[in-house]
Amino acid sequence: MSTLAAASSSPPTAPDPTDPARSPAGSAGGPPRRGGWPAVVAVTLGIFSVVTTEILPIGLLTAIGGDFAVSDGTAGLTMTMPGLLAAVAAPLVTVATGRHDRRRMLVLFLALLVAANLLAATATGYGAVLVSRILVGVVIGGFWSVGAGLAPRLVPERSAGRATAVIFSAVPLGSVLGVPLGTLIGDAYDWRTAFGAMAVFTLAALLLLVLTMPRLPAVDVTRAAVLRDALRRPGTGAALLFTVLIVLAHFGAYTYVTPFLEEVAGAGPLTVTLCLLGFGAAGIAGTFAGGALVDRRPRAAFAGAGALMAAAVLALPVLGAVPGAAPVLLVVWGVAYGAVPVCSQRWFARAVPGAPEAASVLFTASFQATISLGALAGGAAVDGHSPSAAMVLGGTTAVVMVLAVAGYGRGRAVA
Fold first, then answer.
1. Cβ atoms of residues 60 and 255 within 8 Å
2. Residues 251 and 217 placed together within one structural domain of the fold
């Protein structure tokens, strides 16, 4: 038996009929007293809060930088810090809390997110903002790794796939609703109010989680050996390479899309908000399109997303000043990026069959680490040259990703 198969399960224990989480919904034991779709909604809202808080600075970057008299590139650290911490927290927190009740961990992470948003909203110095973003990084790594794979324990088996899709829909929804609304609040009031509003929303998600989530004792314990074995699996290296390249391309450019729209396209605050809204709406369409294609043609889905992103991002410095061009290109970019998370997660899931939490950890860690690297690289390009330079950097990296996928042996399985 492989290390992965042996280490990903804790010793069998007799089920406790009084524990609503030990008799999965839909089994002979019947549905849990709590759980079901209300709990799925609670997890979805929690992930929505996490995703929105993580990328909220994108729409508020110039306001944050102006308040503390720092450059746009330095303000981009608000995107770099969470990703770096999430990449470290995902494996460490998952292993360290592997035997703890998952409900308790989700509650703890959301409470920490409330505190992080309140700290940002009341920060009197840029250092306090960065501390709040460090806390956000810990929450991202922990909540994602624990919550992403819980659907089968909350609803009947026949509904698990649909429930998982609902949970993952929080990612594009964070872009289509969270960031534009946060930007709108920031424009109407100030950026601190946007973070304060996120604290209130997260608190509501936390209360719903407490009311609906059953106890979820650890069933499959992800140990360090499981993650080491997962990294050696065929297909994991390809999933890592493609994910790093495409996420680097996206966040190297998208983190600085607000300065680009303001300086190159001449967009005002309302236009920027509408552009971000269009990007997010297109992202939802891309998520469903990528999900429909990736199971049948994984290489085509991932390469297609990269090619579409490369075309749109590289066209922005050339056509961005043309009236109406930037919003159209952002919609194309949104469709492309919407397919990226579902494609990446699916490649990791196929690479690490039988250990969904380990696959989630690898997906989360690689994705988040690269968000940080992308924001950092884009920040250097912006500070050294201009926002257009960040677009060129992102688009070129997307081209490299497409070439890498194309060069992946046609005779190999995805995993």
1. no
2. no
CA distance 55 to 174: 8
Distance CA 106, CA 39 (A): 12
Does residue 95 form part of some domain?
Answer: yes
Looking at 221, 256, 282, which one is the last position of a domain? 221
Instruction: In whole angstroms, give the CA distance from residue 306 to residue 135.
Output: 31
> Is there a domain that residue 176 lies in?
yes
Give the pLDDT of residue 307. 93
pLDDT in tens, 312-354: 999 999 887 788 888 899 999 988 988 888 788 777 777 766 6
Whether 17 contacts 23, CB under 8 Å: yes
Low-confidence ranges of the chain (pLDDT < 50): 1-33, 411, 413-415
Read off the tokens for 193.
Answer: 């109010």
Is the domain of 169 the same as that of 230?
Answer: no
Question: Model-level pTM?
Answer: 0.70
Q: What is the DSSP string of 264-301?
A: TS---HHHHHHHHHHHHHHHHHHHHHHHHHHTT-HHHH
User: Domain tally for the chain?
Assistant: 2
Q: Are 359 and 352 in contact (CB under 8 A)?
A: yes
What residues make up the domain containing 73? 31-221
Q: Could you tell me if 74 and 206 lie in one domain?
A: yes
- Residues 58, 166 share a domain: yes
Residue 19 covered by a domain: no
Give the C-alpha separation, 36 to 156, whole Å. Answer: 8
Given a contact cutoff of 8 angstroms between Cβ atoms, the answer to whether 27 and 51 are in contact is: no
CA separation for the pair 202, 179 (Å, rounded): 14
Q: In whole angstroms, what is the distance from residue 320 CA to residue 326 CA?
A: 5
Do 352 and 238 meet the contact criterion of CB atoms below 8 Å apart? no
CA distance 245 to 261: 24
Distance CA 47, CA 9 (A): 26
Contact (CB, 8 A) for 377 and 362:
no
Q: Check whether residue 306 and residue 348 sit in a common domain.
A: yes
